[in-house]
Amino acid sequence: MLDALRHRVPQWLRRTRAHASNFAWARQWQAVRAAATPWMKQEYEAARARLRGAPRPGVVIDRDALDRWVRNAAPPGVPFEAVVLPGGELRARFPDGPMERRSQHLLGKLRMTHRAIPSESVLVIALFSDVAADYFIETMGADVASGVNGAYGDGTALSDAASSIPVVLKEIATAAGLGTIGKNALFFSRRFGFNCKLSAVFLGAPVSRYDATPKNTDWKLPDCATCNLCVEACPVGAFDDYVIKKVESCDRLIASDYFGPRRDHMCRACITRCPVSNDVLKLRRREGAPQRAFWDNEAQLSLVADLFMYRPSFWVWMLQRFYYGADMPGRSSDRKKGFAEALSSSVSTATSDRTRDGWRLLAKKQR
Ligand code: SF4
Ligand code: SF4
C-alpha cells in the first residue's frame, strides 16, 4: 500500500503541476485577447475596407490568364487544386453561420468567414503539402495576385497572406467545394486529405469563366462518423466533434517543439494519425507528389527565409541550434552538443517516414 502510494504521489503531483500551468497559460492568453479586442476590431474593419475598395468597373479578368498565373506560381512538381467562384454565390453557401469568428490563437484575430467577403470573385487554392510550412502557399497566392494586378491595375487582386486579409480559410475552401472538415477541426481536401495548405485571392472584378458552384449541404468528412483516432491521438485533447476546444494547449505544445530541440518534428498527430488522409497521401505519392526532403523541413526552410529577410527568428534559430542541438527522435537529448556537432547535425537533420508519423506516439509506445 505504502509502496504503491510512494509511486503514485509523484505522478499525481506532476499531473497537477501540468494541469495548473496549462490553466494559467490559457487564462493568460484570454486576458491578452480581451485587452487586444479594440485593436483586432480595427484591423478587421480595415481589411474589409481594403476588400470593398478593390472593385474595378468595366474590367473582366480572363480565366485562361488566371489559370496560367496559378500554374506558374505553384512550386514545380507540387500538385494543387484551384477554383474560382463569384463572390455572391460563395457568400450564399452554408448560410447558417457567423459572418466572422474570433480566433483563440494568441491575440485572437477577428476573421471573416466566406459569408462576409465582399469581393466580386474569389480564387481558392489548395496546395499539396505534408509539412507544417506556409511559405510556398503564401508566396503562391501573392504571385497570382501580382500577376492579376500587373495586367488589370494595382489593387484588383489581394491575397489573404500578402495583404493581411484575416479570413477563415478552411470555411472558404469548404464553401468553395474543395473539401470538408474533419473531426480534428481541420480542412480535408478532396484531393490531398489533410496534407494541404490553403490560400484565397480576392478579386475586385468578374472573371470570364467560373467553376460550378457546389451544391452539397453537409460540410463534415463522412468517414469521421465511425472513427475517433485523431481525437485519441492528440496529446492535449485540443479538439473534438469538429471543433477546436483548446488552441492554447496545442500552441504550447507546438511552441515547445519549435523553440526546443525538436523543431523539425512538430506534433501533427491530428494529421498523421488519420487513416483516410494517409490513404490519400499514398495515392498522391504514387502519382509523383514530392516526398519530404531536407529543404521541406520547417526549420531548414525557415532558416533560408529568415536568412534572406534578416528576421530576428534567424537568431533564435541559431541560438536554439547551438544551445539545444538538434537531436533526432529516439536519441537521448540530455546532452548539449558542441558547436561543431550542433552545426553539422542542423544541416543533416531530415524527416523520415518513421519520424513523420509522430515521434511523440513512438515515444509513448516505447514507454
Ligand atoms: S482520424 Fe478518423 S475521426 Fe479523425 S479526421 Fe480521420 S477519419 Fe475523421
Ligand atoms: S498538433 Fe498535436 S497537439 Fe496540436 S491539435 Fe494536432 S495532435 Fe493536438
- Please report the first level of CATH classification, the CATH class of the domain at 49-216: Alpha Beta
Mean pLDDT figure: 78
Span between termini: 24 Å
Radius of gyration computed on alpha carbons: 22 Å
The description of the largest β-sheet is: 4 strands, antiparallel
Number of helices: 14
Question: Structural class given helices, strands, pairing?
Answer: alpha+beta
N-to-C SSE string, H for helix and E for strand: HHEHEEEHEHEEEHEEHHHHHHHH
Bound molecules: iron/sulfur cluster
* CATH topology-level name of the domain at 49-216: NADH Oxidase
Q: Under the CATH scheme, which architecture of the domain at 49-216 would be assigned?
A: 3-Layer(aba) Sandwich
Query: What's the total number of strands?
Result: 10
Strand order of the largest sheet: 1-4-8-5
Instruction: Determine the fraction of residues in helical runs and give it as a percent range.
Output: 40-55%
Contiguous runs where pLDDT drops below 50 for at least 5 residues: 259-264, 294-299, 320-337, 348-367
Large-scale geometry:
globular
Strand-residue proportion: 5-15%
